[in-house]
Amino acid sequence: MLQNHEIALSVNNLNVYYGGFHALEDISLEIPARQITAIIGPSGCGKSTFLRCFNRMNDLVPSARVQGQVLFYGQNIYDPKINPVEVRRHIGMVFQKPNPFPKSIYENVAYGARINGYKGDMDELVERSLRAAALWDEVKDNLKKSALALSGGQQQRLCIARAIAVEPQVILMDEPASALDPIATLKIEELMQELKKDYTIVIVTHNMQQAARASDYTAMMMLSKEGSRAGTVIEYDRTDAIFTRPKDKRTEDYVTGRFG
């Protein structure tokens, strides 16, 4: 199904619990490298929980328990010997609401690289990261200004630059454009197309048009069965197949707006 793409992330029989609550049930799929994979589905079906499994963010929830495997280029990131901080260096995250640090634009980009012990030319890294996030031309004369003075769309691109600066291989995006206007949203989508030349991108989105426009593959999530509160992936395929010839009636109802 993945048409000979290299596999960046492979999920095997993934189940997630918060205390006694079964949040994700029996998910298995493969995320291709240097492609954009969208995760779609109605509210409450576990999309963000699933995304956070890819860089062990659920570890930060005291009651969370993860069963199954998430392989990153063949290495199980849930192996007890694996340091979650190291996982997050390779698998970065951009959140729904832009969350720049209350520091200068320059320091926002440099901060993560510095605490990771980056020994190279920091000015060059900051410029390269801002260029990669399509923000350099807008901020190059104001690098010492507070990041909080930027517009929402600029702040989100700064957060993407900050994620890029630690040189990850995967970038996770949780509803990255939901707080942005349509023009800023389009800029984020264009940016994603550029970034996938070098990075694997996994995005959660409620926006069907965005998933159809921006992604190569789409995973459709739903509650696993009638009466269950556990989410699962009911269909996963190339995006054009999901939107034009879905195999599952529930997928068809969702993407055509008859459900959810």
Structure commentary:
With 260 residues, the chain is an alpha/beta fold. It has one domain (7-255): P-loop containing nucleotide triphosphate hydrolases (Rossmann fold), CATH 3.40.50.300. Helices cover 34% and strands 27% of the residues. The chain has helices at residues 47-53, 84-90, 105-115, 122-132, 136-139, 152-165, 182-195, 208-214, 239-244, 249-255, and strands at residues 7-18, 21-32, 36-40, 64-72, 75-76, 91-94, 170-174, 200-204, 217-223, 231-238. The strands form two sheets. A six-stranded mixed beta sheet has the order 6-7-8-3-9-10, sandwiched between helices. The longest helix has 14 residues, at 152-165. It is globular. The chain starts with 6 loop residues before the first strand and ends in a 5-residue tail after the last helix.
Question: Could you give a quick summary of the protein structure above?
Answer:
With 260 residues, the chain is of the alpha/beta class. 34% of the residues lie in helices and 27% in strands. It has a single domain (7-255), classed as 3-Layer(aba) Sandwich (Rossmann fold), CATH 3.40.50.300.
Output the keywords.
single chain; 260 residues; alpha/beta; Rossmann fold; 6-stranded mixed beta sheet; 10 strands; 27% strand
